[in-house]
TrEMBL record:
Protein name: Sigma-54-dependent Fis family transcriptional regulator
InterPro entries for this protein: AAA+_ATPase, AAA_lid_NorR, Homeodomain-like_sf, P-loop_NTPase, Sigma_54_int, Sigma_54_int_dom_ATP-bd_1, Sigma_54_int_dom_ATP-bd_2, Sigma_54_int_dom_CS
Pfam families, per the entry: AAA_lid_14, Sigma54_activat
Upper lineage: Bacteria, Pseudomonadati, Pseudomonadota, Gammaproteobacteria, Moraxellales
Originating species: Acinetobacter oleivorans
Domain of life: Bacteria
Assigned keywords, A-Z: ATP-binding, DNA-binding, Nucleotide-binding, Transcription, Transcription regulation
Keyword Transcription regulation: yes
Domain Sigma-54 factor interaction per the UniProt entry, residue ranges: 23-252
Keyword Membrane: no
Amino acid sequence: MRHNIVTLPEITQRSDSHKATAQVFNDPESKKLLEYIKQIAPSEASVLIHGETGTGKELIARQIHNHSKRRNKPFIAVNCGAFSETLVESELFGHEKGAFTGALSSNAGWFEAANGGTLLLDEIGDLSKRIQVKLLRLLQEREVVRLGSRKSIPVNVRVLAATNVNLEQAILSDQFREDLYYRLNVVTLNIKPLRERKGDILPLAYHFIDKYHAQLGYDKADFSNAAKEKISNYWWPGNIRELENMIHHALLICQNGIIESHDLTLIQPPTQLNQNKLQEKKASEPVINPKLKEVFHQLFQQNDGQVYAKFEEQLLRIAYNYCHQNQVKTAQMLGLSRNVIRSRLIDLGELVVNKRGE
């Protein structure tokens, strides 16, 4: 049975050992993701792709590009974490001759190289705050200014961003700009780890068998039933890249063209919490802050049927001011969504909305 396998181009310089080189859309969750990609791809919206390392974020970005109106234009993927702070500005935005020591000629950056097409900024969270400011300006103005130049160059690029970190948490820790986050996060794609889309595991495994059989001349191989069960139930912390490496190794050591269960070297999952500690935690009573308890008692004594509403209102106002009127930080601290926080702040008169709902 043939499956919809998507692979990366065979690029000799590709050295990202963590990067997934193939993606399949066989699992029901993956099929839904592919349909969603086809829906959002024709637009010009920026897309933020989130997923663990090795889940195939670049492959998803290529699918977006291939289903878009820019499919016949360049697709360029740039790993933001692969460049030093001194080089990343030149790599992204380009530089003029003499802009720095060693700049013997003018060079276009990746934004100019991707003009008319799509640029994937992989590991976007690795960019410094200084570069984030310049990136935000580029996205707003649709023009790039090379390092060492004052001349702006118009660019027409659809920007996709990928990350394996929680950017909202990075905003709270002052590692990532909130305005840049919302500029990039018009559409969000959350790529599930391989362990949560089991229907993709065996098709990918057979793809990697075929790949190494063709490239390296290994004998054609298959899995024993025990091996199939083992890889289907494994937790795959390294996702697709780990699967590829494991199949490669298994082909080297298997006998008679059959990959047995013992040919698959798996990492044991993290040790679960000690059962005794869990029982102790359940048995322990919550500790109530004495000052809070006193405040609650004062509210209870009023007995006007509005205790909860009053407390919720005051809690939200105090939290919002504590977070310097930052909705994302307030939502994170209270464990609520930003939409809920925004709605309640509007109800309380803390936010004023214009006619356009802004």
